[in-house]
Amino acid sequence: MELSQTYQIHICDDIKEHALELKNLLQSLDPSRHVEITVSSSAKEFLALLSSVENGETPPWNILFMDICLPESDGITLGKKIRELCPDTYLILVSSHSEYAIKGYEAAAYRYLLKPVKKEDLLTLMADIQADYDKKRKLLIKGRKNSAYVALNDILYISAEDKYAIVYTPNGHFICDISLNKYEEQLKDYGFYRIHRKYLVNVYHHRSLNNNHACLSDGTTLPVSKSKTGAYRNFIFSYMREELI
Fold it and tell me: What is the CATH number assigned to the segment(s) 2-135?
């Protein structure tokens, strides 16, 4: 059971000095966060990496910085290909020419940065990516019969059943040999609340609280312990305030 949080960054720039400068800047932003950075110095080198993705391998990056003007291929053409093969990649096009910015929209780039890239621009960019990433954060659920990365917002609730737990989603459930206590500890900072000794709910799916019962977005109704009702209501209000800020 784990949360996918690592930044896997790739930089594609034919000018090695620019790639190294960007790499050093990225590494200096948040030393506490685990960041893996790789570099390719040409479109040909990058296409060799992309071919493995075409063959079904998982992309070795989730954030991609690409020079918009490469000798062997332009960033727009590559960007469109990346969009098809790696739809979850945050594509950032980089250039010394501001007039190319509009072309970034053709490749559905997440952002466009001007060279030389400034640290304050990177800070803003990475903060925006983190905010968006938090909304799509995923949990690796290892079930008895099946395992998968599931977006936290797709988890409705988790129940305790004897020596195992069941993770419920709109598309089915996973039976896991993990205690509800362990799920509670791992998910306590992500909008999950233990409303009962048997139930851990995702407040994202909370819809109403009536007569010590919580109703979720799919219509499921779960009991809330009387001793937890007030604290759960406060937790909901706190969650709502954070979402609105």
Answer: 3.40.50.2300
Domain ranges across the chain = 2-135, 139-244
62-87 confidence digits (pLDDT tens): 899 998 888 777 667 788 888 888 88
**CATH fold of 139-244, please?**
OB fold (Dihydrolipoamide Acetyltransferase, E2P) (2.40.50)
CB 72 within 8 A of CB 43: yes
CA-wise closest residue to 95 among 126, 64, 120, 116: 116
- The residue written with tokens 């919580």 in the block is 214
Task: Report if pTM > 0.85.
Answer: no
